Amino acid sequence: MDMPGHGGHGGHGGHGDHGDSGSRPMCAMNMAFNWNTENVCVLFDFWRVNSSTSLVLTCAAVFLLGYLYELARAGVRGWEKSHAPSGTLVSTSSSTPLVGTDAIRNDIRWKRALFYGLLVAYSYSLMLIFMTYNGFLILAVIGGAVAGHYAYSSDEWGS
To answer: How deeply is 137 buried, as exposed, middle or buried, from its count of CB atoms within 10 A (0-12, 13-18, 19+)?
Structure first.
């Protein structure tokens, strides 16, 4: 039964092609693990996997994103250590604050908060790529993160 005022869409079917009929198909939205190589959208509608070449390039880009995330984390840790007040114990865990936070200038605390927010946004973007449930992209995210962690983690345990 059609809803009044919905122009005969029979519920909600047909809403996906407003003014764009005849263009490319909608992105595949899988909710189960898959190895699709066609019509896979990565974060944005314009970033699509539609061929073997685009799959290889996308996996390389996603690997690089995972790798660079670890570089960004290491950079923020290094920045925090360099801006910690002398005599302050700096935690190597990203989830615990600097000990002696009261001694840190307000502008430094704002910058730390901004870096934290940027890293959260970055990590959620990687999570959204992971949630395509595409095996190739999942392996690229994990591979980039592993390689980045190996390259940029310090020799200290817990960092």
So the answer is: buried
Biggest CA–CA distance in the chain, Å, is 72
Question: Phi/psi class of residue 144: alpha, beta or left (left: φ > 0; alpha: ψ in -120 to 50)?
Answer: alpha
Q: What is the DSSP letter of 45?
A: E
Quote the tokens at residue 29.
Answer: 């939205």
Continuous H helices in the chain: 52-83, 106-130, 135-152
Cα atoms in the Cβ-side hemisphere of radius 13 Å centred on 37 = 7
Task: Please state the rounded mean pLDDT for residues 70-96.
Answer: 77
| Amino acid letter, residue 35 | W
Region of residue 129 (left: phi > 0; alpha: psi -120 to 50; beta: else): alpha
Give dist(CA 131, CA 29) in Å, integer.
10
User: SS3 for 50?
Assistant: coil
CA distance 107 to 110: 5
The reported pLDDT for the residue numbered 68 is 98
